[in-house]
Amino acid sequence: MKLPKLVLFFLLALSVISCAKKEETTSFKFGVWITADAKREDADYAKEFKKYKDGGIDEVLINTQTDPKLLGRLVPIAKKEGLKVHAWIMAMNRPNDSVALQHPDWYQVSKEGKSCFDNRPYVDYYQWLCPTKKESREHVLALVEGLAKVEGIESVHLDYIRFPDIFLPISLLPKYNLVQDTELPQFDFCYCDACVSKFEKEHHKNPKTSHNTSIDMEWKNFRLNAVKAVVDDAYKIAHKYNKQLTAAVFPYPEMADHMVRQRWDKWNIDEVYPMIYHSFYDEEIDWVGYATKQGVADLEGKETKINTGIYIPGLKSDKELKEAILLAKYNGAKGVSFFDGNALSDSNLKTIKETKASLK
């Protein structure tokens, strides 16, 4: 029996509306950062991944210490449980990198003239490679390529894609007995020969003899652009292998610029995961919405998506967890990601699942 055209049109319209509603309910994604251990059994990972999926998580961002083999082992386990996988890499900060440690000249140098190779700011795992020096940046990009080749991942996910903190988050200052009202030379990087030489060639002045490097915009932009160049090359590599490029970044571009020489709204990148860890900055939970909105505004006109990073230990309750998720969503984020898997309690996962269901 042939249906009248009007009925067919009505059914088609219902189908389109249904698909649109389905897309609307699934477009906001939930992720979690985790660190892998090659010694753990596959069954343990299957159990962990199932727990995340049952708790409303859609994706895992896995740090395998840049090991493509371990990543390749975990991808099918995660995918079997219904999770997407991102390859999380510590980019410019490369603690215990056995290759880099053979090349002391690859490391960033402070304004005091001390190298991260053996004089590390703040903590011993701060071993930062120079983004300008050809050999060090090529090493990082080769690691990106190794991960991008792994079948089944969604993206290579850059972390520590910046300079060392010129300013720490305010709540961390007492831990190091520091006052940072100005840019301190022991935390100001990179003054290695490669950076100074290239800057001199481009701008005809030496930053080492600058009257006040904190207000020298060319010197600041030189370092912002050095990081951008690494990101833009990583973007080309990831897309060469049909993967996306994503990154964990500081809360919003102006703040990232000020604190760690990172201007992520200028990058060629598919998605960013701003680490809007409000407790680090002595802020209230509503700051999650504020910082998310700032980043969204700075990305206006670009295709880059924002996934708000939420710091689980900084939350006082599951009520705050739900509030943080909703603040991110209603201020323009396309998803949220939680730091980290070990911190997620059963109660947290129940809240995440319920909050996710409420968005439908």
Structure description:
- The chain has 360 residues and is an alpha/beta fold.
- The protein is built from 10 helices and 8 strands.
- Strands 1-2-3-4-5-6-7-8 form an 8-stranded parallel beta barrel, surrounded by 6 helices.
- The radius of gyration is 22 Å and the shape is globular.
- The two termini are 36 Å apart.
- About 6% of the residues have low confidence.
Structure summary, number of beta strands: 8
Strand-residue fraction? 5-15%
Structural class designation: alpha/beta
The whole-number mean of residue pLDDT values reads 94
End-to-end gap: 36 Å
How large, in whole angstroms, is the Cα Rg?
A: 22 Å
- In DSSP terms (H or I, runs of 4 or more residues), the helix count works out at 10
**Helical fraction:** 40-55%
